[in-house]
Design goal:
The complex is a heterodimer of chains A (299) and B (475). Chain A is built from 13 helices and seven strands. In chain A, helix 5 runs parallel beside helix 11 and helix 6 (134-143) packs across helix 7. Chain A has a single domain (8-289), classed as Rossmann fold (3-Layer(aba) Sandwich). Chain A has a five-stranded parallel beta sheet, with helices on both faces. In chain A, strands 6-7 form a two-stranded antiparallel ribbon. Chain A has helices at 7-30, 38-43, 57-62, 65-71, 88-102, 134-143, 145-153, 155-158, 162-172, 186-195, 204-220, 238-249, 277-289, and strands at residues 51-54, 78-80, 107-111, 223-228, 254-257, 269-271, 274-275. Chain B has two domains: 6-181, no CATH class; 188-474, no CATH class. The chains are: A alpha/beta (299), B mainly alpha (475).
Chain lengths: 299, 475
C-alpha cells in the first residue's frame, strides 16, 4: 500500500492548498478595512464612537444611528453594533473588544429583552472576526467546536458567511436605514397575543455576561443604559421578569423601560417584536421626552 | 449517516484504512458490517427489512437455479416480487392508498375513517428493494449467474456507498466485481476523490445554496409573485440536480476508491434535446431499470403508436410513484409520460414538415434544449410542492403573471451565490461535452490538481454547511 504512495505530490498539493487558503483569507480580511459594516469598521480600527448600541434585531432595528446622533444634537458619534439574533454573551465579547481597541466609550446602550434568552447561534456568522477577536473565537470554540477547528484548517472557511458577503457589499453600498417598513395585520396581531404565554427566559450565561458588562461600566467609568423596547403582546409574567433584570443590573444602572408602553398601538409594529419606521419615530420621541439624550444618570 | 457530516468523515477514514489491509472474505465481511453500521446509524431496526429482502432474493435465486419447471420458477419469482413490493407497499404506500381511498369515499358522500399505519419510511427502501428484485428477475431470465455466497450477495445489497440513494447497481455488474480484491491504485483513488469533491460541490454549493432561496417560496407561495416563482422553479431544477447528481458522484467515487465501478447516474441532463434523451441522462440507473423491467416487458414501442403511448404513460406513472407516495410525484411522472408521448407525435408528424425550413433546422438543437428544460421545470414544480393545490397555485401565479415585479430575492447574497454556482455547473457540463478539452484535462496532472485545489477553496469559502439531508434519501 505504501510502495506507490505519491507522497511528494500530496505534500506539494497540501502546501499549495494551505498557502493559497491563507493568502485568500488574508486578502478577504483586507476588505474589512474598506467596508462600512459597523463591526468591520470596529475591528479594522475605524470604529471609534462616543455612544455604542448593543442588542439583537431589536437593537438593530430600533436605534438608527443618524436619529440617535440627531437626538444627541451632534455631540456624540454613535455606532450601532447590534447583531440580529445576538445573545448578551456575544454583545459582551464585542464590548470588551471595543474597549480593548479604543478604550471606554462615553455611553453604552444595551437593548436586552429577547437577547437575554438567546444562545450564541448568531455568532456562527461572525466567524470572520475570529482572527481579530479572541473572545469571538472562544465563543465559537466552546459552542461550535467543529466550525472552530474547520476554520483552523481552512482560514477561508472563516469567511464563509453572509456577514462577510455583507461586509463586501458595504464597501460599495453604505449602511442603509435599518428600520422596517410595513404594519402587522390585525389577524397576526391577534394570533401573537394568543400565543404570548411567558416572557423571555433569562439564561444563566447571559445573566453572567450582563453582570460582567455592568462591572466593566463601573470599572471603566462609562455610562450604561439598559433599554427595553416595546413589544406588541402583553405578558402576564413581565413584571416578575423585570424584577429579575433589576436584580442583575443593580440600582446604579439606568433602566429605560417601554415594553408595555401605552403610546404604541398595532400600527406602530412591523411584527410582534419589532417596531416599524413610524413606531421607531414614536420611540425616539418618547426617549427624548424622557431625557434619554441628556448625558448623566437618570433621576 | 449523511455523506456531508463529520460522523461520515470519521467513518470513511476508519473504513478505508482497515478495508485495504484486508483480503478476500474478511474484506467482504468488514464491508458488510461497516455498511450495516452505516445504515443502522440512522435506525438499526430497519436493517431487518434489508435482511428480509436480501435473504428472500438469495434463497429464491438459488431455488430458481435448481428448478427447471417453468410454473414453479414463476411462483418463486412471484414470491420474491411480492416480498419486495410488499415491504415497499406496507412502509411506503399503504397510508397513501388508504387515505386516497378514504378521500374518494368522502367525495362520494361516505364518511369512512380508515385506519392508517403511520410507519416511518425507511431510508433508501425503494433503492435496495429494486436492486435485489432486479437480481432475481435477471436470474429467472438467465441473464445473471446465481450467487451462491451469501456473504458476497449480502455485501452487494447493502454496500454503503449506494445503499440509501443509489445508483441502483445491477447484480450482473457488481457481483463479479466483488469476487476480486481490488488493490490500492493511487491513480484510480485520485480520480475517485476528484469525483467525490465535485459531488460535494454540487451538494454543498449548488443544491444547499439554492435550497435556501427555493424553500420559502414553495412553502408559502402566496407571498411571492410570478417572476419570483419562475426563478424558484428554475432554482429547484438545479437544486435537485445538484443534490442527486452530487450524491451519486459521491457514491460512485466512494465505490471507485474501493475498486468498484457503479457506472454513471447523470450525464448533463439539462442539455437534452428530447425527453428520451433526458431520461437517458437523468437518474440513469432508475430509468434503465424501468426500461428493462417494465417498459420492454409491457411491449415497449413494438406494438404501434397507441400501445407505445400507453406503455410510456404507465412506466412514467410508476416512475413517479416510485419517488414518493403522493399525488405530486404521480403527476410529475405522468407529465413526463405525456411529454414523451407528445414528443413522439411531434417527431413523427411535425418534424418532417419543419425539417424543410432551413433556418429552423439550424436553431432546432438549441431550441429543443430550451423547450425540454422549460417543460422539465414545470414538472419539477409538482415534484417540489407539498401538495397538488400548492403546485397549481404556483403555476397559476406564474402563468397569470400575478405580482410579477414583486421582489424575487429572498436573500441577495444567497441568490447571487446560487446564480454563480448554476453558471459554474453549466460551464463544467458544457466543457465536459468537448472531447478535446477533456482529453487535455485528463492528460495534464498539474491542471487537474490545480482545478481540484480551486474546487476545495470554493467549497470552503462558499459552500453551505448545514448538514442538510439529501432529497433522494426520502425515496
Amino acid at each position: 500500500m505504501r510502495a506507490n504512495f505519491p507522497f511528494k505530490f500530496i505534500l506539494i498539493f497540501v502546501l499549495v492548498f494551505i498557502a493559497g487558503d491563507r493568502l485568500f483569507a488574508h486578502i478577504a480580511g483586507i476588505a474589512f478595512k474598506y467596508s462600512c459594516l459597523p463591526e468591520a469598521k470596529m475591528y479594522s480600527g475605524r470604529g471609534k464612537a462616543d455612544v455604542l448600541v448593543f442588542g439583537d434585531s431589536r437593537g438593530y432595528r430600533h436605534f438608527p444611528v443618524m436619529s440617535l446622533e440627531k437626538g444627541f444634537k451632534g455631540r456624540f458619534k454613535v455606532s450601532n453594533l447590534s447583531l440580529i439574533g445576538a445573545s448578551i454573551e456575544g454583545m459582551e465579547a464585542r464590548l470588551f473588544d471595543y474597549v480593548e481597541i479604543y478604550g471606554p466609550p462615553k455611553m453604552v446602550i444595551v437593548e436586552s429583552t429577547s437577547s437575554l434568552s438567546s444562545y450564541n447561534e448568531a455568532f456562527k456568522e461572525q466567524r470572520c472576526f475570529m482572527l481579530y477577536s479572541k473572545r469571538i473565537g472562544r465563543i465559537i470554540k466552546n459552542d461550535y467546536p467543529v466550525l472552530y477547528y474547520a476554520g483552523k484548517v481552512s482560514n477561508l472557511f472563516n469567511y464563509n458567511s453572509v456577514t462577510f458577503l455583507n461586509a463586501l457589499h458595504k464597501i460599495v453600498i453604505p449602511e442603509p436605514e435599518l428600520t422596517l417598513k410595513g404594519v402587522i395585520s390585525e389577524k397576526n396581531a391577534e394570533n401573537v397575543q394568543k400565543r404570548a404565554k411567558s416572557f423571555y427566559k433569562i439564561t444563566n450565561d447571559n445573566k453572567k455576561a450582563l453582570k460582567r458588562i455592568v462591572e466593566l461600566s463601573r470599572e471603566k467609568g462609562f455610562e450604561l443604559r439598559i433599554v427595553l423596547a416595546p413589544l406588541l403582546p402583553k405578558y402576564n409574567d413581565y413584571k416578575q421578569w423585570k424584577r429579575s433584570l433589576e436584580g442583575i443590573i443593580g440600582k446604579d444602572v439606568s433602566l429605560w423601560e417601554y415594553v408595555s408602553n401605552n403610546s404604541f398601538v398595532r400600527e406602530h409594529f412591523y411584527n410582534h417584536n419589532h417596531l416599524n419606521k413610524d413606531g421607531v419615530k414614536v420611540l425616539l420621541k418618547i426617549l427624548e421626552q424622557d431625557g434619554f439624550f441628556r448625558q448623566g444618570k437618570r433621576t | 449517516m449523511l455523506f456531508n457530516s463529520i460522523t461520515f468523515l470519521v467513518f470513511a477514514l476508519i473504513f478505508f484504512t482497515v478495508y485495504f489491509h484486508l483480503k478476500g472474505k474478511s474484506r467482504l465481511l468488514f464491508s458488510l458490517v461497516a455498511s450495516n453500521i452505516f445504515y443502522g446509524w440512522w435506525d438499526y431496526r430497519f436493517l431487518t427489512l434489508i435482511w428480509i429482502s436480501t435473504l428472500t432474493d438469495y434463497f429464491v435465486a438459488l431455488k430458481l437455479e435448481r428448478l427447471s419447471e417453468q410454473g414453479l420458477r414463476k411462483k418463486y419469482l412471484a414470491l420474491s416480487i411480492c416480498v419486495n413490493l410488499g415491504i415497499l407497499g406496507i412502509f411506503k404506500y399503504f397510508d397513501f392508498f388508504i387515505s386516497s381511498f378514504s378521500n374518494l369515499l368522502s367525495t362520494a358522500g361516505l364518511n369512512a375513517s380508515l385506519p392508517l399505519l403511520k410507519l416511518t419510511l425507511p431510508i433508501g427502501i425503494s433503492f435496495y428493494t429494486f436492486q435485489t428484485m432486479s437480481y432475481t428477475i435477471d436470474v429467472y431470465r438467465g441473464k445473471c449467474e446465481t450467487e451462491k455466497d451469501l456473504l458476497r450477495f449480502a455485501t452487494y445489497v447493502s454496500l454503503f456507498p449506494q445503499l440509501v440513494a443509489g445508483p441502483i447497481v445491477r447484480a450482473k455488474s457488481l457481483l463479479p466485481q466483488l469476487k476480486y480484491d481490488h488493490d490500492v491504485n493511487w491513480k484510480r483513488i485520485a480520480g475517485a476523490i476528484e469525483m467525490i469533491a465535485w459531488g460535494f460541490f454540487l451538494k454543498l454549493c449548488l443544491a444547499d445554496t439554492l435550497a435556501m432561496e427555493v424553500g420559502p417560496k414553495f412553502d408559502s407561495p402566496d407571498g411571492y409573485g410570478a417572476l419570483s416563482h419562475m426563478m424558484s422553479a428554475v432554482f429547484f431544477s438545479f437544486q435537485i440536480y445538484g443534490d442527486f447528481a452530487g450524491y451519486s458522484l459521491i457514491a460512485i467515487g466512494l465505490g471507485r476508491v474501493m475498486g468498484f465501478d457503479f457506472g454513471i447516474n447523470f450525464n448533463r441532463p439539462y442539455f437534452s434535446k428530447s425527453f428520451n434523451e433526458f431520461w437517458q441522462r437523468w437518474h440513469i440507473s432508475l430509468s434503465s431499470w424501468l426500461r428493462d423491467y417494465l417498459y420492454i416487458p409491457l411491449g415497449g414501442n413494438r406494438n404501434g403508436t397507441i400501445n407505445t403511448a400507453r406503455n410510456l404513460v404507465i412506466v412514467m406513472f410508476l416512475g413517479g410513484l416510485w419517488h414518493g407516495a403522493a399525488w405530486t410525484f404521480i403527476i410529475w411522472g405522468m407529465l413526463h409520460g405525456v411529454y414523451l408521448v407528445l414528443q413522439n407525435i411531434v417527431k413523427n408528424y411535425v418534424m418532417p414538415v419543419i425539417a424543410r425550413w432551413g433556418y429552423v433546422k439550424e436553431i432546432l438543437p438549441a431550441l429543443s434544449i430550451v423547450i425540454v428544460f422549460f417543460l422539465t421545470v414545470i414538472a419539477w414544480i409538482f415534484f417540489r410542492a407539498k401538495d397538488v393545490g400548492t403546485a397549481w397555485d404556483i403555476i397559476t401565479i406564474i402563468f397569470t403573471g400575478k405580482n410579477i415585479y414583486s421582489s424575487i430575492v429572498e436573500n441577495k447574497f444567497v441568490f447571487l451565490k446560487g446564480i454563480f454556482f448554476i453558471l459554474i455547473t453549466l460551464a463544467v457540463d458544457l466543457l465536459s461535452m468537448n472531447g478535446r478539452v477533456m482529453n487535455y484535462y485528463y492528460s495534464n496532472t498539474y491542471l487537474r490538481a490545480g482545478c481540484f485545489i480551486v474546487l476545495l477553496w470554493t467549497i470552503s469559502f462558499l459552500g453551505t454547511f448545514n448538514e442538510s439531508i439529501f432529497i433522494y434519501f426520502q425515496f
